[in-house]
């Protein structure tokens, strides 16, 4: 991402978009359909500034102002379209994970935080992920999961994609629940995320427990 070489290059204050079930990862792309007035306002302000929005899930609290999860990911608006009915179709490209830090008392209808990027500064200059798939096991697990879920992907594209981009794209796009997506987001390294992703796919593609008694006829 141009201009962001270290944590101090990133904005000191960012708007946050609390959205459960959706996570963004560094280098990943997340399409969003924005229609609530407060978040339309947020996008307008972001487009007029650094174009940075923090995606973060929640963890309870009041319905009006739920608590923010301990880790989110800042993304830059890299695609923007306004629809005839006033919605914004945007794409965020992940820049760097952050800890929400202090929430600021603001007049804007959307929430803003002073993010802590330091712990995840390596997201800005991640080394090549060579050797992430040393054998075919990852793709075997992926195939079993997709078959179990009735999903399909372009295998040629998947196998030719950079390993880190593939892992992050799957973590963003596959239908895991909010807690599982948060665990993938919080995995510190790409290798940790690969292992967590494989574990989740193996769990979700497993059949019924063989030790369970047969149903009564």
**Classification by helices and strands:** alpha+beta
**What is the number of helical segments per DSSP (H or I, 4+ residues)?**
6
Form type: globular
Quick one: how many beta strands?
Answer: 8
Secondary-structure element series = EEHEEEEEEHHHHH
Mean pLDDT across all residues, rounded?
91
* Main sheet attributes: strand count, strand direction, barrel closure: 5 strands, mixed, barrel
How many domains comprise the coordinates?
2
- Tell me the helix content: 25-40%
Looking at CATH, which topology of the largest domain would you report? Archaeosine Trna-guanine Transglycosylase, Chain: A, domain 4
Specify the CATH homologous superfamily of the largest domain: LON domain-like
| Through-space gap between termini | 61 Å
Strand proportion: 25-35%
Low-confidence stretches: 213-217
């Amino acid at each position: 991402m141009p201009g962001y070489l270290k944590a101090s290059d990133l904005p000191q204050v960012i708007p946050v978009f609390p959205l459960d079930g959706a996570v963004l990862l560094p280098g990943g792309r997340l399409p969003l359909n924005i229609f609530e007035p407060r978040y339309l306002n947020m996008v307008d302000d972001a487009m007029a500034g650094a174009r940075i929005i923090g995606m973060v899930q929640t963890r309870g609290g009041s319905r009006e102002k739920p608590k923010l999860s301990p880790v989110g990911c800042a993304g830059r608006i890299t695609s923007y379209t306004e629809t005839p009915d006033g919605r914004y179709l945007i794409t965020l490209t992940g820049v760097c994970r952050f800890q929400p830090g202090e929430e600021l008392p603001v007049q804007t209808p959307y929430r803003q935080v002073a993010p802590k990027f330091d712990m995840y500064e390596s997201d800005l200059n991640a080394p090549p992920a060579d050797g992430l798939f040393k054998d075919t096991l990852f793709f075997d697990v992926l195939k079993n999961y997709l078959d179990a879920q009735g999903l399909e992907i372009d295998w040629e594209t998947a196998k030719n994609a950079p390993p880190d981009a593939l892992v992050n794209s799957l973590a963003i796009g596959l239908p895991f629940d909010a807690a599982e997506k948060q665990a993938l987001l919080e995995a510190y390294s790409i290798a940790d995320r690969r292992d967590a992703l494989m574990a989740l796919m193996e769990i979700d593609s497993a059949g019924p427990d063989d030790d369970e008694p047969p149903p009564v006829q």
